[in-house]
Write a structure and sequence with these properties.
Number of helices: 1
CATH class: Mainly Beta
Order of helices and strands: HEEEEEEEEEEEEEEEEEEEEEEEEEEEE
Radius of gyration: 22 Å
CATH architecture: 7 Propeller
Distance between the termini: 53 Å
Structural class: mainly beta
Strand content: over 45%
Oligomer: single chain
Shape: globular
Number of domains: 1
Helix content: under 10%
Number of strands: 28
């Protein structure tokens, strides 16, 4: 009898706990569902950098509204680069090229505020691009690549000296990081088991058809996709063994078309910002390379591109008539793009870096 009573009591407790858990989960899900999608970009102003925040309103009509402008306290000025602003979960980072620093950004509900300021390592300067993992911030500048604790900011891992000052972007995969150099090369920077830079650096040998002006890049696990923008093969896939598979881009090639900036979509889809072509150029890949799919036109020249964490949206920054805009496209089940919303003028001639916060 006691056993039966205990079982009955346990059953009631389990039912109560299950109901409470489901209620809490439902509340959490509702909270997540109600949280707005924000899109952030930077002015990169040499006199004083600022982050511009837009809110994506996805109701009956998709709208992109201006939300805030946040002065970072540092100076901009980077050029020929991508990934100067990144966001992951509730924290982001934006590089201040002219101040040798990175500003932390913190999301609270539907607002973004400044966090701390992270200085580059001694002797390093002019940060042009950042990348984020769960626990680390990666920075590449004119003469160094670094990994920092995130969000604490302290140096973790080795500081890698760079003899070439033309770094365009840093990106991080599962076991290695990569730096594109617009002068014509890509560097492999292995990670330690702790996920920080090991200090080793190896140039990746690029074929002549895919070696002119590497700029944008993104990882798919441990596979790198990058854009040798001025090459006839204007997209390329690289594995962790540094094997390069060039992919012919849209024709005619540079100077008519030049995929420059990269965002990873779902599965084997890659989106590139085609600056002279005024378009988003889409590629598909496999383990042996890939193929150019199609281009979606833009009103101006794109200078960075990003895919939302839920995979539903693509944002691209571009300038038209000396006025900067953010354009948002919805992504369907096949990876095709449909124009959804464009930001109005905020009095800035060009943006640098673009990222989602959801």
């Amino acid at each position: 009898m006691k056993v039966r009573n205990l079982q009955r009591t346990h059953g009631l407790g389990a039912t109560t706990i299950l109901a409470t858990t489901l209620l809490a989960a439902g509340t959490a899900f509702a909270g997540e569902h109600e949280r707005s999608t924000l899109i952030l970009t930077s002015t990169n102003d040499p006199a004083g950098n600022a982050v511009i925040v837009f809110k994506l309103n996805d109701g009956g009509t998709t709208l992109l509204s201006y939300l805030d402008s946040i002065t970072t306290g540092g100076k901009g000025g980077a050029s020929t680069n991508a990934g100067i602003l990144q966001f992951r979960r509730d924290r982001g980072a934006v590089a201040n090229y002219g101040s040798n620093s990175v500003t932390e950004l913190v999301r609270e509900e539907d607002f973004v505020r400044l966090g701390g300021t992270i200085k580059q390592a001694a002797g390093c300067g002019k940060p042009a691009s950042v990348a984020l993992t769960n626990d680390h911030l990666f920075v590449v500048g004119a003469n160094c690549a670094e990994s920092h604790a995130w969000p604490g900011g302290g140096i973790e891992g080795a500081v890698v000296a760079l003899a070439d000052p033309s770094a365009a972007q840093i990106a991080v995969g599962n076991s290695w990081s990569a730096v594109t150099l617009s002068s014509g090369s890509v560097l492999q920077l292995p990670l330690t088991s702790a996920g920080v830079l090991s200090g080793a650096v190896t140039p990746i040998s690029l074929p002549p058809s895919a070696s002119s002006v590497p700029l944008g890049e993104a990882f798919w696990h441990d596979t790198l996709g990058f854009t040798p923008a001025h090459s006839p093969d204007s997209f390329a896939i690289v594995d962790k063994d540094r094997t390069v598979h060039p992919v012919t881009g849209p024709t005619p090639p540079y100077p008519t078309n030049a995929p420059c900036w990269v965002a990873k979509g779902a599965g084997n889809i890659w989106y590139t910002g085609n600056s002279p072509g005024h378009a988003i150029s889409i590629f598909f890949s496999d383990g042996q390379g890939g193929v150019f799919y199609k281009s979606t036109p833009l009103p101006g020249a794109p200078s960075d591109v990003s895919v939302s964490h839920d995979g539903k949206w693509l944002a691209v920054i571009y300038s038209e008539s000396n006025d900067a805009h953010v354009a948002v496209f919805s992504i369907d089940d096949y990876g095709d793009l449909t124009a959804a919303a464009t930001s109005g003028s905020v009095g800035v001639s060009a943006f640098s870096g673009v990222a989602f916060s959801q």
